[in-house]
Amino acid sequence: MRTSEAHPGGAPAITPARASGGDVGASIREWRNLRRMSQMELALEAGISPRHLSFVETGRSRPSPEVLLALAQCLSLPLRDRNAWLLAAGYAPRFGEQGLGAAEMTQIRATLTRLLDAHDPYPGVVLDRHWNVVLANRAAVGLTALLPEFLRSPVLNLFRASLHPEGFAAHTLNFGQWGNYMLGALERLAASNRDAASYELLDEIRAYPGVDALSGVGDADAPGADLLVPCVLELGGTRLSMFTTLTTFGTPRDITLEELCIELFYPADADTEAALRRGGQPDT
Question: Can you say whether the dihedral through the CA atoms of 86, 91, 95, 97 is positive or negative?
Fold first, then answer.
């Protein structure tokens, strides 16, 4: 698995349109430009001639599946887009997409559950490609139980839960900084996913009161800003300050696994650690 600390982001990433029909050459060129690689660099790294790559990008030559996958590997293309390239060129997709509840996922699901349980009493969740919660440990369930029912069903989305005025936004003491991070993460996610559901979610959340004003909010005045921006909540008289890490699978061959994300929250100070070990209850 790959792990990195979450932090407030800048402008959303610009990603090429997903290949469809016969435009695989144009998609290759867009991804190459995104990665700032010349035709010569990409061709040499993929083991083909620059002339052949030029013909592929302009549609004068139909690439083989092996060439497409070699180019995709050099460009660090997501598995979903690799399948799209193959389909656009007239080939069968190579990467499956099993649901987390599928029998083939039993061991993965058990491993994720053990990871979350071991993280308790600190909150931890597993998120899908739209940041819907698909697994949660006891501490996370306890926190999300404070949310209104309409934010918890039919599925709990972390962006809605964090930014809706009746959700955690109402309890976030540093909403300007934390909300700016969450909005930036959603913008990058929509640019990466490039699907209707992501853009609809972004439009919905941008319409929430106060969210549109978050863009560009700095984090200089946030607690712990010299290291990172925590999420600072006040719940039932208890102040919780937490930072978060994001973990992904390092060698996925399945689209679902590549798009899963494990978010683990940690106490940012001693008082929060003590409160979480008490189950989030005030000290009496």
Answer: positive
pLDDT tens-digit map of 223-253: 545 678 899 999 989 999 999 999 999 899 9
> Closest by alpha carbon to 257, among 125, 105, 131, 118?
105
C-beta of residue 165 within 8 angstroms of C-beta of residue 208: yes
Is 166 in contact with 146 (CB distance < 8 Å)? no
279 class by beta-carbon count within 10 Å (0-12 exposed, 13-18 middle, 19+ buried):
exposed
Q: At how many degrees (to 10) do helices 65-74 and 79-88 cross?
A: 150
For residue 29, give the amino acid letter: R
Token pair 């955690």 in the structure block, residue:
168
How far is residue 125's CA from residue 112's CA, in Å, rounded to a whole number? 9
Identify the burial level of 31 via C-beta atoms within 10 angstroms of its C-beta, where 0-12 means exposed, 13-18 middle and 19 or more buried: buried
How far is the C-alpha of 201 from the C-alpha of 159, rounded, in Å? 9
Phi, psi at residue 67, to the nearest 5°? -65, -45
Alpha-carbon distance values, 15 to 35, 204, 239 (Å): 10, 22, 39
Q: How many CB atoms lie within 10 A of CB 116?
A: 22
Which tokens sit at 143? 């926190």
Give per-residue pLDDT as tens, 30-53. Answer: 999 989 999 999 999 999 999 999
Residue-level pLDDT at 6:
43
Of 111-115, 126-130, 207-211, 276-280, which range is least confident?
Answer: 276-280
Residue 267, classed as helix, strand or coil, is strand
How large is the C-alpha radius of gyration of the chain?
21
Residue 111 has pLDDT above 60, yes or no: yes
Q: Are 111 and 103 in contact (CB under 8 A)?
A: no
